[in-house]
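Researcher: Last one for today. Full complex below.
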Amino acid sequence: MNEKILTADLVNAVAEATNIPKNRCDDFVKAFFEAIANALAIDGIVKVKGLGSFKLISVEERKSVNVQNGAEMIIPAHVKVSFTPDKSLKDEINKPYAHLKTYVLNPNAPLDPPEPDDEDVVEDVTADDSSQSENLVSESSPVENMAVEATIPSISTLEQSGDSSQSVVASGSSVVTEPSVSDSSTDVSEPSPLSTQSGGEAESGVLGDSSVATGVSESASSADVPEFSSLSTQSGMAPVSGVGIDSAVVGNPSVSNIEQPKIDTSSSVNNAVGEPFNEKDNTLDAGLLNNRANEGDDAKESEGTDKTVSSHSDWFDNWEVEYEAEGGTIGDLNKQIDKDKETPVFVQPQFSVADEVAASFDADIDRGAIAVDKDKNENNTDVSSDESQEEAQGVHETVKTEIPENGDVAAETKEMPAAETNLEQDLECGKASEKEECIAENTESAQLPDAEIPESNTVRDLNTEPEKVQHGKVLGVAIVTFIVLLVAAFFGLKALDPDFFRGLKASSDNPPVMPNDTVTTLEHELSVYVPEADSTETPLEADNADGSYADDGQSVADGGSDVAPVSDAVDPLWNGEFVAYMKRQHKDVSLATSGLIGETTIKPGLFLTMVALQNYGDKAYWIYLYLYNTDRIKNPNNVPVGTKIRVPKLDETLVNGPSDDQLNLAKEVRLKFVK
Amino acid sequence: MNTKDLITTIRGQQSLSAEEAELLFDATVKAIKKQLLDGNVVAVQGFGQFEPKKKNERISVNPASGERMLVPPKISVAFKPSSVLKDRFSND
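Model: Here's the assembly. Have a good evening.
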């Protein structure tokens, strides 16, 4: 570059190219220029093919001013040599800028930046969108913590729940990775202080304290799903405390949440909760898990009651109110159960859940006691939906069975906080169902000793059975219950707000549409969890290895792909306005992209048109490169060197070599989006 | 005078076959072009130098309509005659 090539170099090059001796080449080259000069002198014009034309132009004398001293002077007439490069030479040498065309400026526009007005707007929008979406992705991907935190603000209406939710988050992260198992196991082996406290408080009868709830949530949180912090965790936690009453009460908040506008979160929370539980279940000693399972049931029951009671905006308020209203006596549990049976409202969102729960109960327990209970339940239930009945039955079973053992359990509970007592009880109880029952019994017995002793028969049956404690069964029960929870939440979501998923689709298709961070994160999570809800029913190993949280980025992507039909998939990288425009004007044109041809870095002399020409067969298609890279290209007329642009594989309806239709479309799009 | 005349002129001065002359001519032009495309300045002693020059984008105004237009940048070849050449013509 910028070297000075002398005649000798030219001669060398010529000799090399022609295989003619250098001296002869030298002679020729010299003669060549000499001939030109002579011809110029004679004809005044010489045209050399491939090089250009030389021309002599005579300049008349003119007056001028000496710049140095200002003196006037006369420039004498003279002849100057003009050179006009041959067209081929001109074109070749101007190749780097060949695609540029003269551009008519807006008369009102400022002189310097010749940027089209519309373009700025578009770019801003897209930039924001892309940044937003990136943020979202990044937030959700790292571990659930980010997402959890993001959701927290929205949930923060629960005031004090904020603390608990954060703690939940921390625990949640552990859950995500896998540590949850260890945590839960530790809880089991060593009665967690939290649970003990909660138990103590429960015994004391002080349920109204938020601190209790939070403490419970923390302990439970390790087991619970990261995201939904306060709501789901608390519902799950309550049982952990070992106080049946607590669980019921705590359950209320979760119910209220479901009813609240943020149903999405709660539902997703439930889903999430289900998985971690499963993991834990595998390793856990069942005691806590069982408790939780019971809790879950209780929560559901409480939900039913809650719904009937009232709609809650602030669950804390509800909690207290309900607690007071529903009575501090544990005897309410039974009442609540009855209510559940009777309340149609409860049925709808959680049908499937109820069914599954009931099924799980049946399968695991599967004993005479159950049968008895069922009979009883059936007698009682003219409930609207069978599912709710079944649930109710399961609940009843647990409750009733629990009751009989009041004596032992009560003593233990008083002495030891939930965990240990539970373990001991578990040992006593042959099976998981029994354990659950035991837990329930503990709570109930402590506070409602006289509640329903008559059904002790069933309990006895259970007790009489061999102590072959099959943890596997227990775990299975817990797992199933949580799966049920997940499914229920999912369907509840669907039933409550069917448009939510559509909105999700739309948002995934059009990043710009995304309303705000929290909402979008929620959507992402949902999209993640929805598929998982199904997968949770598959072998537990899947849950253990569950990389879904850690690989959130992927899972998010998966969710998106799940949502959007493949055929009409619109690459989110497209400019939003462009997508909207195409959907409006050219529905027959597919914006689907099948991966990237590659990424190209803009270099000096390499322009979008060239890239388009190389990849799409015509430089008119450069507009698509711009619209596909609006997050990287601010001004399509001035793409900075070093800019990396993505070159997507485009559909034939959009780019098809020299086809007139596609070229016209490209031109139209260009006129629309670039002035 | 055009290329053909040039070649015949040169052939008249040197003993070259027509083919050879054409070959050399093409090779010479190509060599110059190649150097210019590479961004090099081709200086021929006693004749002048060819230089590729980048001309920046500019705003031009259509005097008739008053339209202002942004003319894109371009690269062109400038020829600067040597003083020897100039002198030859001015002397004439």
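Confidence is low (pLDDT under 50) at residues 114-468, 503-567 of chain A. The longest helix of chain A spans residues 471-496.
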